[in-house]
Amino acid sequence: MLSHDTGRSTTRLGTSAHARLAISASQQEEERGKERRTERKKKREREREMAQPAGWKAMYQQVVIEADGSCADVEHRVAAARTALESPEAVLTSRDPTGVYTLLKSALDDVEQASDSLSAFIIHAVAAERLALHGCGVIPSQPVARIADLRDDHHDRHDERLALNRLEDARDFAKRALRGVDGALKLLGSVQYMLRDLGAGAAGRRQAMKEQLQAAARELQLVAVSVCNTRSLARMATEPPIGNRVQ
């Protein structure tokens, strides 16, 4: 009876030992698998760094800085136009010896320049995004297709993705500001037309012109808010911790 029990115990011990060995082998294989995956990831990173032009991050920074410069000009132009439009009565009465309505012309010139600078900002923002997507690709001829793909399991580019998300939001605010600027231009152009082409008949439209000038001023007030958001987001697209990698 004792011999049978001893045999069963020995069998159970042998089975347990085999199980432990199997688990150990499985764990070792899993560790080796992790090491292989880590090594492949490091290899891809090395290949990516070797394949990319060394200066793409510096180029990205420079393009975003130029975009910020365009945005600063918009802020200046919009502020100047709003100052010129503070008094609709003054706009309709301020004329130089040649008959030019000086405040209206000044506001129109500033708003037109603001429109050009907003367009320049949007162009720079798009260029910066494309630079980053090319730079984050395995090779320049195979850029990352879109910002969302920067969270791919193969290469998580957190800082770059965050920078481009902010730049994308900045571009959306810039587009909103551009629509507001275009609306103000139309209103100011209408007033200019009535003053210039209607001649003496413009006197009867004085209240309508004042209302259009006030509407243009309100549009520019909203533009100022959008431009402030645009510039803040664009600056955040290059500041630390993003600046630690995208530079």
TrEMBL record:
It comes from the Eukaryota. Signal peptide: none annotated. InterPro entries: DUF1110. It holds the Pfam family DUF1110. Coiled coil: none annotated. Residues 1-53 are annotated as: Disordered. Residues 29-38 have a biased composition (Basic and acidic residues). This is BTR1. It comes from Hordeum vulgare subsp. vulgare (Domesticated barley). The gene is LOC123439457.
